[in-house]
């Protein structure tokens, strides 16, 4: 049966070949050309979008920098955009985003990596069949829902902790639990699914023979995982971490609900405003220079994401490249 | 006359319902090269892996019979797997250096077994690379990634890596089938060196290779050992027609 089918294919191909030799353009060839141009257009659309967004962000983010000066906007900490004598320093907002993302990655990545190791290397099949769908579902939950849960569960707990830690403190400004630490915890959970599934794929791609070689030298399973498999999966794991950093940095909704929202030095128990939440909460009413300054915040966020994507990849990957 | 290093008695191995090794009884001589030959799927690689219990890693494997290393059953309960695999090293078909430097590849085994002294590790690395005849090519680039070596060099590196834990037996699963002829020749010369101090068991598809390097040869077919003995005798006058056919290239 199979052989006859192959024979038919072959005959058809032969027929077409001879037709095109006689100069007639076959139907197949026209479809080939059409398909190729559709692919090309689609591919260039992505390139076009990146360029358009970059240009747009620069065009709208730079005017405020020109009017206020780099120092006044990027390295000043007073953010009073609607005061009579307005001030547009976003230093604390930048630092909050960086600190929140760093903390989230610090908490989330190790947990995610160990989960990926568990799924790819350790878990018996029935157990993996329960954990993996759960992780995938985690990825599908809308970010605002994470925010709601954070508000309802995490913030009250955090508030209790805060009351205990700062009892009698004259200087601490109580936040009701909406602070940098809450935001980082929510972000840590949110980056789990991405980091887990990308790292798990990377771990699974490590050739079985590497594991066997390590075991054949007398290494245990755990030694093999930590000394051979994880290093071998490093490029994929780096990609996972970069994606996680990008997700944490760019998240607005959930953070907006749990982080308090005042512009402050990013300390664990301070109410903070991130780059993203500044945009979300102020863009609705901002005008004039305030609006332009918000676009500068957007540009800074965009710049950070770009830097993370390009630099982090280079630094983390570069060490043992071929 | 060499002593017996490994003896298997009535060794049966099943993958689920598939009877992959059928009552294999064989003696492997110390400080000699034993070649396992036979068509694909005949069980020779499975037999090889039974000698350092690498089949344990595969799911659904069941084993009956005995494998004795220096008279001690390696399938007895309470056998320390780490100690066993330290004594019985293995080299695989595809050169597969770990994704780390040349030095760290060689030092991997000793470190696993608890060696921390830098000076002793340095000594082990040099000695192992020398024994695997790859020291001259690598001594100036020990800190470079092993992935930068050629395929043949990588395979000699893998041999050095196996030697670094001071094994007594070296199992090789078609170690040259992924290599070019020049690299193959180097590995074969190396084998002739190694057999002075190690017991070598090699699976090969290459009849000339078996004839060139092996002192003893065993012919596997469908999970059974059809014929075994001194390589010279097997290649000059095998008793079983199936062995003669296979060696002459009329089979498999």
Short description:
The complex is a heterodimer of chains A (322) and B (252). Chain A has 322 residues and is mostly helical.
Multimeric status of the protein = heterodimer
Largest sheet of chain B: 6 strands, mixed
- What is the radius of gyration of chain A? 26 Å
The amount of beta strand of chain B, in percent, is 25-35%
Number of distinct beta strands of chain A: 2
The chain pair forming the largest interface, with residue counts per chain, is: A-B, 20 and 28 residues
| Spatial ordering of strands, largest sheet of chain A | 1-2
Please identify the structural class of chain A as seen in this structure: mainly alpha
CATH superfamily of the largest domain in chain A: MetI-like
Report the total helices of chain B.
Answer: 10
CATH architecture descriptor of the largest domain in chain A: Orthogonal Bundle
Q: Note the run of SSEs of chain B as H and E.
A: EEEHEEHEHHHHEHEHEEHH
Uncertain regions spanning at least 5 consecutive residues of chain B: none
Order of helices and strands of chain A: HHHEEHHHHHHHHHH
Cα-based radius of gyration of chain B, to the nearest Å: 18 Å
Mean pLDDT of chain B: 93
Average pLDDT level of chain A: 89
Could you describe the 3D structure shown?
The complex is a heterodimer of chains A (322) and B (252). Chain A has 2 domains: 1-68; 75-316, Orthogonal Bundle (MetI-like fold), CATH 1.10.3720.10. Chain A is 76% helix and 1% strand. Chain A has helices at residues 2-21, 27-68, 70-74, 91-122, 125-140, 143-165, 180-204, 208-216, 221-232, 234-250, 253-258, 275-282, 289-318, and strands at residues 79-80, 87-88. Chain A has a two-stranded antiparallel sheet. In chain A, strand 1 and strand 2 (87-88) form a beta hairpin. The longest helix of chain A is centred in the N-terminal third of the chain and has 42 residues, at 27-68. The mean pLDDT of chain A is 89. Chain B starts with a strand and ends in a 5-residue tail after the last helix.
């Amino acid at each position: 049966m199979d052989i006859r089918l192959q024979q038919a294919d072959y005959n058809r191909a032969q027929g077409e070949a001879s037709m095109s030799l006689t100069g007639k353009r076959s139907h197949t060839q026209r479809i080939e050309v059409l398909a190729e141009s559709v692919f090309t257009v689609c591919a260039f659309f992505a390139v076009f979008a990146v360029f358009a967004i970059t240009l747009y962000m620069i065009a709208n983010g730079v005017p405020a920098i020109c009017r206020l000066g780099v120092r006044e906007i990027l390295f000043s900490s007073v953010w009073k955009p609607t005061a009579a004598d307005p001030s547009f320093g976003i230093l604390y907002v930048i630092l909050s985003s960086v600190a929140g993302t760093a903390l989230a990655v610090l908490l989330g990545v190790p947990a995610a990596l160990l989960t990926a190791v568990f799924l790819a290397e350790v878990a018996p099949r029935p157990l993996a069949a329960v954990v993996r769908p759960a992780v995938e579902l985690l990825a599908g939950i809308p970010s605002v829902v994470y925010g709601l849960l954070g508000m309802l569960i995490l913030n009250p707990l955090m508030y209790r902790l805060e009351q205990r830690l700062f009892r009698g403190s004259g200087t601490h400004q109580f936040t009701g639990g909406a602070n940098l630490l809450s935001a980082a915890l929510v972000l840590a959970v949110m980056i789990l699914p991405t980091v887990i599934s990308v790292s798990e794929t990377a771990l699974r791609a490590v050739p079985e023979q590497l594991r066997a070689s390590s075991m054949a030298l007398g290494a245990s399973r755990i030694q093999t995982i930590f000394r051979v498999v994880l290093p071998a999966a490093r490029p994929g794991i780096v990609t996972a971490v970069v994606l996680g950093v990008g997700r944490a940095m760019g998240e607005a909704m959930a953070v907006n609900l749990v982080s308090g929202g005042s512009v402050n030095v990013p300390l664990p128990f301070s109410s903070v405003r991130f780059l993203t939440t500044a945009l979300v909460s102020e863009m609705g009413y901002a005008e004039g220079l305030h609006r332009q300054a918000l676009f500068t915040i957007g540009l800074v966020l965009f710049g950070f994401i770009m830097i993370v994507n390009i630099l982090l990849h280079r630094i983390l990957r570069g060490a043992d490249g071929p | 006359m060499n002593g017996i290093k490994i003896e298997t008695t009535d060794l049966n191995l099943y993958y689920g319902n598939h009877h992959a090794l059928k009552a294999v009884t064989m003696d492997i001589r110390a400080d000699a090269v034993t070649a396992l030959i036979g068509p694909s799927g005949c069980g020779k690689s499975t037999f090889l892996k039974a000698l350092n219990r690498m089949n344990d890693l595969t799911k659904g494997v069941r084993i009956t019979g005995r494998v004795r290393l220096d008279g001690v059953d390696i399938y007895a309960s309470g056998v320390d797997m780490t100690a066993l695999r330290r004594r019985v090293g293995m080299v695989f078909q595809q050169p597969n250096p770990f994704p780390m430097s040349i030095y760290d590849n060689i030092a991997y085994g000793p470190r696993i077994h608890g060696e921390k002294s830098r000076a002793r590790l340095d000594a082990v690395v040099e000695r192992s690379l020398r024994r695997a005849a790859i020291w001259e090519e690598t001594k100036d680039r020990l800190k470079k990634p092993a992935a930068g070596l050629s395929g043949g060099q990588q395979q000699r590196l893998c041999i050095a890596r196996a030697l670094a834990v001071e094994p007594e037996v070296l199992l090789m699963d078609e170690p040259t089938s992924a290599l070019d002829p020049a690299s193959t020749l180097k590995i074969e010369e190396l084998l002739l060196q190694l057999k002075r101090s190690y017991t070598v068991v090699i699976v090969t598809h290459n009849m000339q290779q078996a004839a060139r390097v092996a002192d003893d040869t065993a012919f596997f077919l469908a999970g059974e050992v059809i014929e075994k003995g001194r390589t010279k005798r097997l290649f000059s006058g095998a008793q079983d027609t199936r062995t003669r056919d296979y060696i002459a290239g009329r089979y498999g």
